[in-house]
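seq:
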Amino acid sequence: MKVISIKQPYASLIAYGIKKYEFRTWKTNYRGEVLIHASKSLDKKAVEEFNVYDLDMPFGFIIAKATISDVILVDDEFKEVLRLENSLIYNHIINDKNFKGYAFKLDNVQLVQRVFVKGKLGLWNYE
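struct:
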């Protein structure tokens, strides 16, 4: 199965259904199920921003599965969609004038039994 490694707190925000898009500078043609891996990296500034959610934030574990249903170019029009959806969660993308990339739309998110595994870059395979 495909896996994507995501820094904390973003991985937990996705796992608990709060964040519905993951952002990358690259796009993929892959659509389908993907495991969400909480990498060993932490975005300290984001943890402070999102402390209102009181998240459980494991590191180095597969914590959820989701479906990549779409990959959307992040332009000014899409930034407005993000602002209307949740300006707190997507603030870092909305206000980044230099971000050029894509939003991976994540649907059908479900928590899974945690599995400790070393992460990788890009979409990677886990048996």
